[in-house]
């Protein structure tokens, strides 16, 4: 018997792909963004666009993806039970597959990879798979709360001391030369940044793990099934999320991109991280409300196919942006303003929505999903492998 999919999970994942593309494209195309510093001399329209990217997308969508990863973990456990197989070896193979895909992604395309983090940190879910939903939610709260408070306190100390991030023009110039050079210099630059990718996993680990556990708790309670969470609950969570998340996002963007001075940047990061889950939750609840409205079926048909092919789409986004940015293709690294980049992002995302829908009318799985499923099952995916 085929495992029934949850349209809400696929639609949320398809929506999250847009936020991931928005953030990753700026990292891939803009040397200042990838170095975590302000771009001097940017056009006003590009400053506004970068401010909006920082406020609305940065730190929000990897949390949503991580939540869905934790939720899907419960579906994978249920799938293994239905198939009558031992779950642990299957999940270990899946984690290895994610780790290897992530390493290839980081070395060849983009060092801001998230798959390595999922492959490694997902093992924590395996160890905690029998935890109760209430305990999982408490773990998520404590882990992320401590993480956010520590970051915010460190940022407040930096602001009090008048510490500024500074502009490392030498590093920017080095990155520009490497990514506009040739295929060899691009590959070498990605290899040189691989330790940064590993460090990024450590820095992101508390946020990712907290979202994993929150998703695990939600999955154990089947909260994304249509009737499990009523409309008033979704409205309440969305309202609280906006009230908490929007001011935090505004301060974060203002400290990172202006008009606040650079001495506030570290505090902005702390506040932005501390309040990011609120805005992520608001986004998710607003989309769930839309799915339950008269526009729900059309929204699900638009977003769910891309969500079913999220791994393929995620990797394809990096292929396209690496071609545009680096010497693999057009060498536009540092040459395209953020406003123009967002137009390109909208075109890429729209194309992915259309292609995903057309692909799944003919095939059950996306190419990367088929490969990962084959590794997970230690053989070609059969008819039962639909979860």
Automatic annotation (TrEMBL):
The keyword Transmembrane helix applies. Coiled coil: none annotated. The chain crosses the membrane at residues 114-132, 139-161, 197-218, 234-254, 266-291, 311-333, 339-360. Keywords: Membrane, Transmembrane, Transmembrane helix. It comes from the Bacteria. The keyword Transmembrane applies. Residues 218-377 form the DUF418 domain. Pfam families: DUF418 (PF04235). This is DUF418 domain-containing protein.
